[in-house]
Amino acid sequence: MSEKMQKKMGLTAKILIGMLTGIAIGGILRVLLPGNEVVETYLVDGLFSVIGNIFVSSLKMLVVPLVFVSLVCGTASLSDPGKLGRLGGKTLAFYLTTTAIAITLAITLAILVHPGNASMAAEGLAFDAKAAPPLSQVLVNIVPSNPIDAMAKGSMLQIIVFAIIFGVAISQSGERGARIRDFFEDINAVVMKLVTILMQLAPYGVFALMAKLALTLGLATFGSVVKYFFLVLGVLFLHGLVTYPTLLKAFTGLSPLTFLKKMRSVQLFAFSTASSNATLPVTIENANYRLGVHNNISSFSLPLGATINMDGTAIMQGVATVFIAQVFGMDLTLGDYVMVIITATLASIGTAGVPGVGLIMLAMVLNQVGLPVEGIALILGVDRLLDMVRTAVNVTGDAAVTVIVAKSEGEFEQEVYDDPYAGAQLMGDREPSKAG
């Protein structure tokens, strides 16, 4: 490919080419050299693993400084404490609403499609589920006893709480606070530039991740759960392509097609990393420069969404609960389904810091309605691939809610949103339009 063509090509296209090339090369090697020791040692565990891990680590490296600095900047710029409370309440309400819609949709379609088969062998299943923290402990853990320790451990809820409190203190500290705010604004500009630099590695990182996945993910893992897999996939696409655009159109009047077009790169990042937090730097930059959201809104709403908004996980939990109940021949009542909806929706608020949060919260939901936790072993084989898709759905929901809230607060640039070339430096070769 010529250098001139590479310059014209946007980042989205480069990532897509890297993804497809990685899948193709991984698939070809899998077919031509199945179980080859050289491929396993030097490519799967070697080159692809190293490049992929470096890419993901470079994104995660930015998460804590980006969340803390951008939240401090956003909160410090809100001189009215009432506006901060209104903004937080509105954002949280939208996130919980979309999660409730997601799991209701999942349960309804799972009941209609009936993916589970009671004749499937359910013996000998094993899943070691870590205990989910009690609600009281979740509430206590939200406030950090040591902010530096919270940053070192990447405890996002604690970082968010400290950043908000710190930002409020800055906004209330007069002239001295203004100097601190300007200092953080300068740091924020540098961090955003670092995001832009590291994003140039994305096509290579995505290539390595996809090549490794194609080499290690066996088609046989789908087996008897292929119906479950495609049902979850279908609900994820339905929620991402219908629910969010409908809400966006209803509350803002904006073009959903424009929104989806401008979210493509973010969705590709989310798909390849399977981490909302790792994708957060890209999501914030895209919201500011492509979607026209002012920074004081995106710096608050998006880190919060990456922490508590788990629509994709809620969809998985809804379908999986019905699927496991059908496999074990257990009938759930209307009350059980309502309990699943309430539990999964509220659980999305305080559990993002728990490792393996999706499956752990699924174990809690199953216990809540008396289903065997061992049934989780049935879906483990396809969970990795579904996790990638539901992460793409999650970041789409984060951005949709952020645009809705920004529009309602008057912190939104319509011209930037409507301009197909706005922020093109982020995705290609033109200068970005700045929004706030």
UniProtKB/TrEMBL annotation:
Q: Matching InterPro entries, A to Z?
A: Na-dicarboxylate_symporter, Na:dicarbo_symporter_sf
* Any GO MF annotation of the entry: symporter activity
Extract one GO BP annotation from the record: dicarboxylic acid transport
Residue ranges of the TM segments = 12-33, 53-72, 92-113, 150-171, 228-247, 360-382
Protein topology in the membrane? Multi-pass membrane protein
Per its UniProt record, what PANTHER family does this chain match?
PROTON/GLUTAMATE-ASPARTATE SYMPORTER, PROTON_GLUTAMATE-ASPARTATE SYMPORTER
Q: What is this protein called?
A: Na+/H+-dicarboxylate symporter
